[in-house]
Amino acid sequence: MWESICLTIAATAGNNIGKVLQKKGTLILPPISFKLKVIKAYAFNKAWVMGFLLDIFGAMLMLRALSLAPVSVIQPVSGCGLAILSIFSHFYLKEIMNAVDWIGIVLAGIGTIGVGAGGEEQKSSSISMFRILWLACAVAILFVLLNGWLRMYRRQRREHELMQYEVVEEIIYGLESGILFGISSVVSKMGFVLLEQGFSHLLVPICILMSICCSASGFVYQTRGLKHGRAIVVSTCAAVASIVTGVLAGMLALGERLPEAPIARLCLLLGWLLIISGVVLLVTSARLVRYLPRPWRRVLRSSVERNVGIRHSSSIRGREQSPSTVIQASALHHLITSPKEKA
Description:
Elements: H1 2-26, H2 36-43, H3 46-68, H4 71-78, H5 81-91, H6 99-118, H7 129-159, H8 167-196, H9 203-228, H10 231-253, H11 262-290, H12 294-319, H13 329-342
Helix pairs in contact: 1-3, 1-4, 1-5, 4-10, 5-6, 6-11, 7-8, 8-9, 8-10, 10-11
Function: Acts as a Mg(2+) transporter. Can also transport other divalent cations such as Fe(2+), Sr(2+), Ba(2+), Mn(2+) and Co(2+) but to a much less extent than Mg(2+).
Subcellular location: Cell membrane; Early endosome; Membrane
Keywords: Cell membrane, Endosome, Ion transport, Magnesium, Membrane, Transmembrane, Transmembrane helix, Transport
């Protein structure tokens, strides 16, 4: 069980860090296309290539983890990718983190340990086609209802000539993308379970292709929400919906079960709760700080300013290593005051 959890952490770290490096590389690159010059520009950009390779490597590790452990264990642990991304951004990209961010990281880490302690390896139970069809119909009906709700709010917004997105629209886009991400993991796991039950080997690549389609559709919905809505709402709903969908779909469609031992079951449930709480704190930390009492906000503000000062001083030291570009303050003061004295 711990092997699959470590693989999941490595996989989600590769996925998230890879996307950040790709984003960093595209800042100086043209929009991607099939032109030879554009392809060469992407191929020779070290940051983009490194991010792309990390992203692919993470996807391969995730498939390996899904072949070893239940989706109800893998999917919640994959939510720790946001915590790993926050740590990477703090130390590599020099982004400032507040105390709420660190609390979210700690909660996600403790939740992962709880999932690892409570999760247990399960023998693959026979998959019922009736359950799979029932799950597919349930997801389709849910999407019809969500899209109908979305169209209703769009119509109201147009009638009132409102340009800004409603909160409900942001929530719907986040839920739709998160559901598709969770279903993607379940479909991948289903291919490995069918292989263990003696079905054709062709079902594994077919399920993986279906999983890729679900993930791509999820990114489309998430991009739509992020384009006009607030990232804080869309990302939170997507992360929570992905974890909940993966757990419920794994239990309903693949026959996964909670541990029989009471302590193991408690650890698993607490692990799920802590991971979801940590992810929510990481996504909403900037807004939560505004609602804290004033004394706490002062402490957080002073710690952030201290971090900024330390990084600013370190950057100044790095610049002072080139003495030819430095003008001493006394010399600059002399240059400024000397004309007045002569006058």
